[in-house]
């Protein structure tokens, strides 16, 4: 029996601390609902649960991606359903107009509705939008300046008209365009994608009103209807604005002389090399040996620009540049990302292709039923258009079915991964409450034993008192 060292008490204290630590872990597990609250609880289990949690979070986002894709396809297919209804009505009107019992006046009356339906098809194609995308608009048909001139200093002869000739990508530097109208009246025009007229002649100029396409242009509405179209690179809603127009200044110069600035771009233009602009009497061209030169220089492009050359003939164009920026493909499909572990291949995405459905894309833009021959032509064209629309709707239906299947697969995987994570990470309350009861009993027992162990030195003192 010892007085200085009470090993029994030390042992009881050790057991009491151990039981207290275990009791603390039980409290933590029961209050948090998690079996693993720190790496010390289960190092390997923590690593696995973190990986499974990340995969679960990814699947949650993928399910939303898929739902977005389904919404995109449903909006497009719904709009096409209405386009199909209008094309059916146009088909019916064409068959009616082809009948010999109708007079010319009757056919013209039918054509009024026919043309109105065609315009409504264009409106639906231009305004059907979801997530900032326009599924019924095709990509533009405008080549990049680098596609036409892959090497700086290149030149060529081209035809003018009411259309975008080339796109200058954002991020291009030190671009020079030198145009020779070859003795005719052709003028270079440059626009931003939202319709701001930066370089060229005002709408009163002869080159706008007497052009090779025989489409007189004299008002902003004329520009918006005939040039500012998706095939020419302009989005729906592009609005003509000439407030920043550089028309070359009061004195014509065969070099890029008059400078203006817009959105971080410095643009120099020499003026209309062909003739006087009636609006202001400026930019008189000087015909020297039949050569009429217009020159434009842009230091850098901070946004995409579109070049048109309007006029009545052909022109020579020479292009120089330091570098051209990257072009953007406006015809890309809507990509639904569905991969939790992407490998960089196409199977990371489910693509929903665009379905260009304007009257031009459907081949019905020039149709009229004001005459019997026109009505017969319209019947054949509308049959083809209806087949095209039906094919587009089938594609969207197939995409919806594929995405719905992908959603079910993702949700099933998500459910199983969450269950696996729960088995590793979450508290088993039946087991943990049993442990808690055990530790509470052991703690009380340890406290009792410690009290008894502390009495032992007093027994030694009782021997001295005898």
UniProtKB/TrEMBL annotation:
Domain called Flagellin N-terminal: residue spans: 3-134
Any matching Pfam family: Flagellin_N
SUPFAM superfamilies to which the protein is assigned, alphabetical: Phase 1 flagellin
Residue ranges of domain Flagellin C-terminal in the record: 380-464
Subcellular location: Secreted; Bacterial flagellum
Superkingdom of source: Bacteria
GO molecular function: structural molecule activity
Coiled-coil residue windows: 6-33
InterPro entries named among the record's database cross-references: Flagellin, Flagellin_C, Flagellin_N
Predominant subcellular localization, coarse grouping: secreted
Annotated Gene Ontology cellular component terms: bacterial-type flagellum; extracellular region
Entry keyword annotation includes DNA damage: no
Keywords: Bacterial flagellum, Cell projection, Cilium, Coiled coil, Flagellum, Secreted
Entry's family note: Belongs to the bacterial flagellin family.
Role noted for this protein: Flagellin is the subunit protein which polymerizes to form the filaments of bacterial flagella.
Name of protein: Flagellin
């Amino acid at each position: 029996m010892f007085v200085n060292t009470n090993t029994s008490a030390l042992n009881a204290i050790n057991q009491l601390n151990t039981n207290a630590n275990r009791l603390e872990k039980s409290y933590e597990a029961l209050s948090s609902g998690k079996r693993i609250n720190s790496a010390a609880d289960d190092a390997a289990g923590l690593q696995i649960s973190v990986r499974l949690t990340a995969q679960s979070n990814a699947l949650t986002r993928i399910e939303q991606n898929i739902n977005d894709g389904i919404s995109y396809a449903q909006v497009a297919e719904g709009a096409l359903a209405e386009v199909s209804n209008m094309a059916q009505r146009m088909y019916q009107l064409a068959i009616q107009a082809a009948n010999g019992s109708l007079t010319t006046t009757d056919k013209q009356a039918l054509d009024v509705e026919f043309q109105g339906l065609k315009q409504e098809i264009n409106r639906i194609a231009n305004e059907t939008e979801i997530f900032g995308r326009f599924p019924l608009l095709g990509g533009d048909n405008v080549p990049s300046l680098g596609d036409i001139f892959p090497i700086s200093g290149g030149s060529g002869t081209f035809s003018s008209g009411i259309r975008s000739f080339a796109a200058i990508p954002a991020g291009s530097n030190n671009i020079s365009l030198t145009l020779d109208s070859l003795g005719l009246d052709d003028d270079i025009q440059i626009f931003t994608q939202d319709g701001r007229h930066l370089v060229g002649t005002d709408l009163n100029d002869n080159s706008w009103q007497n052009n090779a396409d025989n489409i007189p242009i004299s008002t902003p509405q004329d520009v918006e209807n005939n040039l500012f179209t998706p095939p020419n690179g302009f989005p729906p809603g592009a609005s003509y604005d000439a407030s920043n127009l550089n028309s070359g200044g009061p004195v014509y110069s065969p070099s890029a002389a008059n400078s203006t600035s817009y959105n971080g771009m410095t643009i120099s233009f020499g003026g209309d090399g062909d003739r006087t602009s009636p609006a202001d009497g400026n930019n008189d061209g000087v015909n020297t040996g039949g050569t009429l030169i217009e020159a434009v220089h842009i230091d850098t492009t901070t946004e995409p620009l579109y070049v048109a050359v309007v006029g009545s003939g052909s022109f020579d164009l020479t292009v120089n540049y330091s570098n051209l920026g990257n072009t953007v493909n406006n015809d890309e499909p809507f990509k639904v990302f569905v991969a939790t572990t992407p490998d960089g291949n196409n199977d990371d995405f489910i693509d929903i292709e665009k379905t260009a459905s304007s009257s031009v894309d459907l081949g019905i833009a020039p149709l009229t039923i004001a005459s019997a021959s026109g009505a017969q032509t319209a019947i054949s064209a509308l049959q083809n258009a209806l087949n095209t629309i039906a094919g587009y709707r089938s594609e969207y239906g197939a995409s919806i079915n594929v995405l719905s299947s992908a959603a079910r697969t993702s949700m099933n995987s998500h459910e199983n991964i969450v269950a696996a994570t729960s088995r590793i990470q979450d508290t088993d309350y039946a087991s943990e409450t049993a442990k808690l009861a055990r530790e509470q009993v052991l703690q009380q027992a340890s406290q009792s034993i410690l009290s008894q162990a502390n009495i032992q030195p007093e027994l030694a003192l009782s021997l001295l008192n005898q």
